[in-house]
Specification:
The protein is of the alpha/beta class. It has helices at residues 10-16, 21-31, 34-41, 48-59, 96-99, 103-114, 128-143, 159-171, 190-195, 205-212, 215-223, 239-246, 253-262, 275-283, 305-316, 331-339, 349-380, 386-389; strands spanning 61-62, 77-79, 82-84, 88-90, 118-120, 149-153, 176-180, 198-199, 237-238, 266-272, 288-291, 321-324, 344-347, 395-396. The strands form four sheets. The chain has an eight-stranded parallel β-sheet. A two-stranded antiparallel ribbon has the order 1-14. Its EC number is 1.-.-.-.
Length: 400
Amino acid sequence: MQFGRPGLDRRAARLGRAADIDDLRTIAQRRTPRPAFDYVDGAAGQELTARRTREAFAATELLPRILHGTAAADLNTPIAGGTSALPFGIAPTGFTRFMHAEGEDGGAAAAAAAGIPFTLSTMGTRSLEQVAEVSDTVGMERHGVPGTRWFQLYLWKDRQRSLDLIERATAAGFGTLLVTVDTPVAGNRLRDVRNGMTIPPRLSLKTVLDASHRPEWWFNFLTTDPLTFASLSTSAQDLQTIIGSMFDPTLSIQDLEWIRSVWPGRLFVKGVLTAEDTRRSLDAGADGLVVSNHGGRQLDRAPVSLKALAEVRAEAGPDVEIILDSGILTGSDIVAALALGADFTLIGRAYLYGLMAGGRQGVERAIELLAEETRVAMMLMGAASVADLRREGRVRAPWL
């Protein structure tokens, strides 16, 4: 019997023991105050959409091929005019530094190191310029090229502020714009209501007690720069009030056409779940689509993204790039999405579980776990490349 030499980096040791994303979730729950953890972990209403999304992935069968002679699996994936080293990127998430002080800095750095896209949210806690600096620095150090970064846009009631963001994103080297269209108002997220979730956070006695036995989070929260959101109110408000004052429920197809006219790069519409909305988005000038139910965080009982994928692909045709978002927690989920017609996938909760578990190191561990799970699944399926997964007979789903 041999014993490993104990290391001094406790965070690395803790993360190294995580065997999958669920293990990172367990670490995250232990180390993060409840309001922040529940904001990530929760969904809208009775959380039916979130549960059904996971059930759909679990019901999908990946078909193995024996004696296939595949020596390796190439995970490089073309998307949005570039190439990602893995068939997934990091989805846009808001309030990220509330989950961990490293926030978007940790996510963007981990993504650039891995050679995958990082998407900054309109409601992010670092600016376009700050994320660009981190992405470029790490990308040049690791690969000799700037990191790939995308920007997610909500259309504000103030159109000039939307235009300002678009122009800043262009200047900062964000080559792809994801326009989220499924958030005219805030979803009814009951966990956040029960936790009294506000931005900026209010330090109630309950909050202090909850954070007191999570010393690392508490120390970081008190000693790093204040949590600010340049696009949001500076006063403490509940999330529904913030979103209600910021977003525009009158968003129309004409507004999407306007965005297309002022955005020079690639444009994806995020939140498409039906053939009708697929056609309307493409007719308005979208280059690609993100099939997404917002992780079940908006309309409860909405269609499951994985199930909607076939309908969207049939309407869009084979040449339109489609990204699958919502519910991905394993490499097998990624493989299932690709085999069912997606060109690429995005991870949200999985990335944030890693971030809460250990900052940038935790995100890197999440990426590492998903990449290895994806590679093993592809090898067992006899798929030498992501393109091989799209051949007929690779997957079975009960709804097809």
